[in-house]
Structures
1.
Amino acid sequence: MLQIYCHPRAKISSLPLVVGAFNDEAIKVDSHLDSDIDNLRKKGYLSTDLGTVNKIYTFGKIPNEIIYVIGLGKRSEYNRKNIITGCQKITFELGEELLIDLPSLSGNISEKEAVGIIVETLVYNNYRFDQYLKEKSEKELKVGIIADEDLSALIKEALIIGVAVNNTRDLVNQPYNHMTAEDLAGYAQELVANLNNSDLSIEVYEKEEIERMGMNAFLAVNQGSTAGPKLLHIKYQPVSGPFVGLIGKGLMYDTGGYSLKSSMNTMKSDMAGAATVLGVLETVVKNALPINIQVIICATDNRINGHALLPDDIITAMNGKTIEILSTDAEGRLTLADALCFAQKYKCKKLIDIATLTGAVVVALGEDVTGLFGNDEKEIQAMIAASQESLEELWPMPINDAIRKKVRSSKVADLKNSTGRNMGASSAAAFLEEFVEEGIKWLHLDIAGTAYHDAGATGAVLRTIYRYLKSPY
Ligand code: BES
Ligand code: MG
Ligand code: ZN
């Protein structure tokens, strides 16, 4: 387990010390070393360009045996994002126990603000998914942060967030044969048990109960699978008042169904929305945010057998709306439709769904920007403000009457589950909007591009949702 703690400045230590240094300033590590280090830089042996790491042996001149000078670039250009770049190479590879000099790394940013970013960055970059490798590193990082004031509460909060992000990444990185709907339900039950909080409860509904509730859109996606569906419903109610519903797309694997994907690699990540809402729950409960939430996940895979859903089929969602299936690969919106209905039945007044919903959002915004949709401008702005705080990129996307009309243009049912290539991400959002009742505020985050990269799962938007929930708005 990675450990991060507050290290008093006065405490003498021989541990390696990480110090930040700017391009346009004299290097200040210790008066016994500074001129030597500056000389190295003048000769070009040492760089303070952003993101560089220089290892310096101190040979008894100071108690710390090694200094790592981290390049921060120009002070005038230094910002919160550059802290992340500057700190990205601070990993267990530098040494299993490190000290970090916070004031030198925070530049003109307050230590209180910088410390959270640094801790989250450290936890993120020290993550490995090596459980199935024969050769795995046993190294675990232990970091002491040297600051001018006691920042242990902020360190603790950031550590909780960082660990939850990595737990989310673990869930997403697991392949289907180790992460079925049943496995996810088991994880959620264990999570709730470990959180050990009397305001927290979980219910896992099985197929028969899901049938009884009339969640036929969800069931339609599951009907071609040998693995049963699971409906996960977690309630956290520490205060009186309304609930925010956090709904995660839980497609444990998306083959496309009979509208089979030509390439389905990485589709184990189609449950990233579900993994993210579980991560958000973990941060909210561990950091004791005074907010009521419900987590709702319709977990299933999208596969084919003799019972599978077919294009042209007409199904009926939980709220009675009928849907013509144009593509069995537009399955996420079917499960989410019923999840939205369920959340409103259980009195959620605000809904946030997180979903790897469309390839179209990847075409529009790429791998680093999440598409944001919603029915309330103030909520959209609040979520964008939260994303700016967490340094995750979100971009507002439109739902207009033209696309709503297309979603309603079926000749044989109330809705179509696919409207073709144009406006693909908005079409999916417009479809979901059909399941949001009057007066209910709703936000939809399409994380198809941001949740999973070549390097694996990212945990995208977890930190943004946490900050959104934490903000007093
Ligand atoms: N799970 C996919 C979306 C996706 C694409 C996630 C790329 C992650 C990376 C979703 O179920 C899907 O297949 N969407 C279709 C919808 C279409 C058939 C209307 C798509 O985007 O092609
Ligand atoms: Mg699909
Ligand atoms: Zn999908």
2.
Amino acid sequence: MIIKHLKEHFFKELTKEEHLEKIKEGALPYNRLMSYYKCAIMEVETKFKVLNEQFSLKYDENPIETIKSRLKSPDSIMKKMKKKGIPMNTDAIEEHITDIAGIRIICSFEEDIYKMAKLLLQQDDVTLIEQKDYIASPKESGYRSLHLIVEVPIFLEDEKRPMKVEVQFRTIAMDFWASLEHKLRYKKDINPELMEQLAKDLTECAEQSADLDHRMEAIRKRIKKKK
Ligand code: 0O2
């Protein structure tokens, strides 16, 4: 009798409307959280736009070439949760996945990357959670970039909420390499032997591109000295 009651309660056939209602109930907290991340992206983007504007006025320089931002797709979030064994709820997503809000700052020169990162971190509403310097220590693939996970407040109607944002700083050359390597890495029909050769070639390209970055930076320094 009890089992029959439980079955009726939990496994009863849902009507189409009930089903949709259940999906909406589950989607609401997720959509709300994603909207908070969108606000956090706007906050951090504005900080960089302000810095670039100030540099343009004060020094006639634009250290930032481009700002790109993205919200991690539900599919990528799910994959990462499965990989890390994180339970499927919004609190766990917020606690364990730190790159849902992602901003990429493309700078002209390596020197500008560290300058921009320092200026961001010295703002009193920005807290550094984690820093990975793949410029000082490139990844085995050749990948170079400075990654910061920062926490910034967003101001809602009745609440101030800290949100995590991942900021990736790259030069144009670093971004060029990473974008192409990312595209090539997802070609699935390549045999392992060829893949190994290609990985070596790609690492070599990364080194050449880093060399180019350093030469351009040296030229810039010579021009500055002449002023
Ligand atoms: P997407 O699509 O870019 O968002 P974690 O994120 O902390 O769980 P991990 O591996 O410690 O995992 O993070 P890491 O290496 O600090 O940064 C991961 C992100 O850096 C990647 O995001 C890429 O954007 C970039 N990245 C890292 N290594 C490489 C590389 O070898 N080549 C390229 N092209 N990009 C790289 P995701 O998560 O892959 O996804």
3.
Amino acid sequence: MRDGRVRIEPADVLLVIDVQNDFLPGGALAVPDGDAVIAPVNRLAARFPHVVLTQDWHPPGHVSFASSHAGRRPFETVPLPYGTQVLWPDHCIRGTAGAALAAGLEVERAELVIRKGHARDVDSYSAFLEADRTTRTGLAGYLRERGLGRLFLCGLATDFCVAWSALDARAEGFATFIVADAVRGIDIDGSLDRAFAEMDAAGIHRLTSGEIG
Ligand code: VGL
Ligand code: ZN
């Protein structure tokens, strides 16, 4: 849903999803135009009262890597105990340069970094719930304990980690906004249009950073 200007309130949180080298042009799982989010994210991060970051943070041999499945290639899908998994190139291996936050990201005011996808056999696009849909990252409890939220999401990738995080934020009862000029998508077989349709249907607000006052 589109609405007009929104004024920043004291409990508002900017949730910066996965702005990591492997998702930038030249990275292992490059999101087209992914580096375009850095400038708007920096401007937002300077203005929000609270900033929380996520990092995709996989062990070597992670179940989401095509290289962990004999004969499979990136962007194919496989059935796993928790559902259908898209297979990716090896990316965001914990501690590597590819997993590091983008060099130009100015987020020193971030109060929390949530790392996700760290269990070898379960992926986690969402900042709240792993792909088994039962294991929690702790983020909802952290936000509630501190009395924080509304949530304003930005980062990468719109149709995977941003959308899953936004949908779970909404399901947790947080007022949730997507900052459209501060996200970019991967877009596999229409996944970007689908993600926006699902977010619209869930009551997630869409605005541009210029509409945040
Ligand atoms: C992501 C695919 C695999 C993301 C993470 O950050 O959107 N996408 N791992
Ligand atoms: Zn990943």
4.
Amino acid sequence: MAYPTKNKKVIAFVEESAKLTCPDQIVWIDGSEKQLKKLRKQACKTGEMLKLNQKKLPGCYYHRTAENDVARVEARTFICCKEKENAGPTNYWMDPQEAYKMCYEIARGKMKGRTMYVIPYSMGIVGSPFSKIGIELTDSIYVVLNMAIMTRVGTDCYDVLGEDGDFIKGLHCKCDVDPEKRYIMHFPEDDTIISVNSAYGGNVLLGKKCFALRIASFLGKNEGWMAEHMLILGVTYPDGTKKYIAAAFPSACGKTNLAMLIPPKHYLEQGYKVECVGDDIAWIRVGKDGRLWAVNPENGFFGVAPGTNEKSNPNALAATKKNTIFTNVAINPADNTVWWEGLTKPAPEHLIDWLGKEWTPESGVKAAHPNSRFTAPAVNCPCLSEAFNSKEGVPLDAIVFGGRRATTTPLVYQSRDWNHGVFVGSIMSSETTAAATGATGVLRHDPMAMKPFCGYHMGDYFAHWVEMGKKASNPPKIFNVNWFRQDQNGEFMWPGFGDNMRVLDWILKRCSDSVDAQETAIGYVPYAKDIDLEGLDYSRDTLESILYVDKARWSSEADEIAEFYKQFGDKLPAELSENLKTLKANCAK
Ligand code: OXD
Ligand code: MN
């Protein structure tokens, strides 16, 4: 057969995988619109996808996953390195030989009657020295079409590989979508990913979490860079100055909203602009200037639909108006468009819900799954930064961590220095969300928002952060934010969304040493007077209360962190235990 590549490793990977899974045919994806169009047509014919109203939503399609396959499955996601110790206590581990054997048994012959698609894709701009190439094999047209939005797919990836270049191998086989045989396996020492029995994005779009975070974090540790679960945004000042922030929040905690925020009116009137470079993943390197430079390796947004509306995130909503794939949202049969909770109020009178059932506001269930998604091309985003296409990426002024915390953590605070900032990231806790299976709203430790995505021992990961701080002579300042403080009635105490600009403003002022701060037990906290409240009906007293650092609470938090840290044993960097001691001592003062 004629192959579109001379790369022997690609050909061997495809042939071996085909021998195992026995597809009826192999289709080599070239990324052309002509080929994608044919696949969309085919998927609509089989019912895998539905065509939406092409006048209102041109190029948009709809897909439902199996009811049992709606989120990432952390308990079935494994790091398969030779030594168990190297996966660390926060990952599930399996011996690589055992894992390969098990996955091969599960996938054997499972593409019979199906087509295997070969997707060549680049994470990052094709050919950039900071980008990496992957080949994903899949038996799902839905995966091909999503990958064509989320990554840079095309035969130019083969040009980058040449005859002998290496790439990340990804084998995805839907098999029977059997939740008991669902496995998302990473072999960081072999640059390989195998995903079986799922068709949910986070488990099967292998360029995203599997490659760009789990495998890439491992590569980053060995090659001296970082792969982080971070949005990247740019703020342009009235005088044209540009500043960049990368921010890590756990899944479904508002990264997309922050990345695309529209500043309050008076900021806009003065000429401030916020632009989005990325909403989920940042690859970060030390530049020649000693600063940290970040690129977004993705090419689209795989965003959580519920809650996205004209007010919360008009830019994301605009991004979904064409060439977008919607998954597990509801369909409005009146005009064949989509709907999800929070899109409009009141809800339409009649919908088809994410399970395909008739739905009315009286149904008493959600019309869209809480983790329903849109897959939208980045180019659709009205506030996409020009820097999105920059090979070097953007220099970071600030790194921001943040979790969903009803109590304890103030609206914003700044770390004292890099290592204290690493400590602040390492002690992140957040309430779980619908992005992963399991209970939601449960407080858990999620260091740097990487608990589900770190491809190696978390203690080594902390040490790598400390090392990166040593390599960068001019590193960004590190902050922590919490948009989710609640009062006694469970009401959120900070308006969030566009008003988060007020906090970013303070953060960037701190980066240019143009505002003072109060030193507290946990770091630098703003004086309430320094958070701009212009145009907002919000009391300074409430602001004071969400800036307050309650030493008694932080003292218990410190005890709890000590417990959490125990699992890392010797691998916990001394820089972090020292910072924990300081926190404890500060709380006792
Ligand atoms: C995502 C996630 O889809 O974090 O980005 O789950
Ligand atoms: Mn994410």
